[in-house]
Amino acid sequence: MSMILYHTPASPFGRKVVVMLHETDLIEQVEVEIVQQTPLNPNRDVLDTNPAGKIPALRLADGTCLHDSRVILDYLDTLHARTPLIPRQGPERWRRLTLASLCDAMMEAAVQIRYESFMRPPGMQWKLWLDNQQEKIARALDYFEREAIAELEGEFDVASLGMACLLGYLDFRIPTWAWRSDCPRIAAWYARTGERPSLQATRP
Ligand code: BEZ
Question: What's the whole-model pTM score?
Answer without folding.
Answer: 0.96
